[in-house]
Each structure stands twice: as structure tokens, then as C-alpha cells.
Design goal:
The complex is a heterodimer of chains A (112) and B (112). With 112 residues, chain A is mainly beta. Chain A has no helices and eleven strands. In chain A, strand 9 and strand 10 form a beta hairpin. The chains are: A mainly beta (112), B mainly beta (112).
Chain lengths: 112, 112
């Protein structure tokens, strides 16, 4: 167990809806990264938060947004859901610039 | 061209076999290299970092060839429990953020 927890584990939404996914980082970790993994693909970097500020973003549209809270937990929000947003969403925590990431078990999002 | 490329496989090998995977990366600014293991729709777990001098962890050996821009993973004496998808990942120096770029993974099936 990595100590990184994500909720919910599974979610079904319809096109156009909005979704919020949550992540609690491992104790002592102040950096949270979010990744999207479509079926048959590797995880793709969405964005990273460090000390409550966005600290880098991948090639995702603005309808993907996030937050990090003072306790370093984090949320990923996706607005105006599209069918292609169906994927496993992974949260990973780390301490500062440490390159070793610890992944949560993910949220499987299905958009119908 | 994808930034990180892997042969998707599957590689079907008998127990006890030796199997090797390669992963090529296109950006010469890539700085750090990793192999992750992912079981079916679960979170990726760090298998090993890859160092310029090569490194070994039990039955697993990882190597980096900067000149040809590829990394490799060798698994000796394959076990049934090695069946999984192996993801290579790199961190680029030029983006200013420590985000992993993953390949699509290579699937390994070890058969009795």
C-alpha cells in the first residue's frame, strides 16, 4: 500500500456532466500529480500541484482543473464531460522534487 | 511520433525464460528513466529506476543507452507472477516540471 487514497473507485457519468475526483496524498508528501490512462495506453500527465499551486500542466483543455488543499489532498474537476474522458484517473504523490511517485489505485470513470 | 515508444507485445514466454523489453525515447532532454509494473487496471508500481551505469535488482536488470536513446529491461527466470504490463517512463529536464512521460506499455504473459 502506498498510502495514497483516491475516491471514488468507480464512477459513471453522462456527456456534459461535471465530475470531481479526490486524492489524499501519502503522509509527508506535498506534491500531487494527476494522470489520465485510457485503455491500452500509458498514463498521461494532466497537471501537478505543489504547495497548493499548479506547478505544470500537460496537454489537457481548461475544462480539466484542480485544487490542492492545505493538508496537500487534491481534487481533479472535469467539466462538460466527453465520451473520450472515459479512463482511469490516477493520482500520485511525492515530496518536493523527488522523482519517485507513489500512485493511488485510481478512479475508473465511464462517460456514457 | 510518440515521445516514448514501446512494443505493445504481448510477449508470451514459458516459466524460467529470459525476456527483454526495449523502450525508445525521442527527446534528448530526457533526464531520468524508470520502469513501472502495472497489473490489469491497477496503479503503476515503480519497479526500478534506470541509471547510466545500468542496475540490477534480483532477476531484473535495467540499462540505459543515451547515445541511441533507449532503455531496456531484462527479466531472468520468469515467474508466473511476472505477468503484467511493463511501462517505461522518462522525466524531461527542459519542461521545468518533474512529470513522467510514459510509454504505452509492453504486456508480458508468463505461461506454465
Amino acid at each position: 500500500e502506498t498510502g495514497v487514497t483516491q475516491s471514488p473507485t468507480h464512477l459513471i457519468k453522462t456527456r456534459g456532466q461535471q465530475v470531481t475526483l479526490r486524492c489524499s496524498s501519502q503522509s509527508g508528501h506535498n506534491t500531487v500529480s494527476w494522470y489520465q490512462q485510457a485503455l491500452g495506453q500509458g498514463p498521461q500527465f494532466i497537471f501537478q500541484y505543489y504547495r497548493e499551486e499548479e506547478n505544470g500542466r500537460g496537454n489537457f483543455p481548461p475544462r480539466f482543473s484542480g485544487l490542492q488543499f492545505p493538508n496537500y489532498s487534491s481534487e481533479l474537476n472535469v467539466n462538460a464531460l466527453e465520451l473520450d474522458d472515459s479512463a482511469l484517473y490516477l493520482c500520485a504523490s511525492s515530496f518536493g522534487g523527488d522523482e519517485k511517485l507513489f500512485f493511488g489505485s485510481g478512479t475508473q470513470l465511464s462517460v456514457l | 511520433r510518440k515521445e516514448v515508444e514501446q512494443d505493445p507485445g504481448p510477449f508470451n514466454v514459458p516459466e524460467g525464460a529470459t525476456v527483454a523489453f526495449n523502450c525508445t525515447y525521442s527527446n534528448s532532454a530526457s533526464q531520468s528513466f524508470f520502469w513501472y509494473r502495472q497489473d490489469c487496471r491497477k496503479e503503476p508500481k515503480l519497479l526500478m529506476s534506470v541509471y547510466s551505469s545500468g542496475n540490477e535488482d534480483g532477476r531484473f536488470t535495467a540499462q540505459l543507452n543515451r547515445a541511441s536513446q533507449y532503455i531496456s529491461l531484462l527479466i531472468r527466470d520468469s515467474k508466473l507472477s511476472d505477468s503484467a504490463t511493463y511501462l517505461c517512463a522518462v522525466i524531461r529536464l527542459d519542461t521545468g516540471r518533474r512529470a513522467l512521460t510514459f510509454g504505452s506499455g509492453t504486456r508480458l504473459q508468463v505461461q506454465p
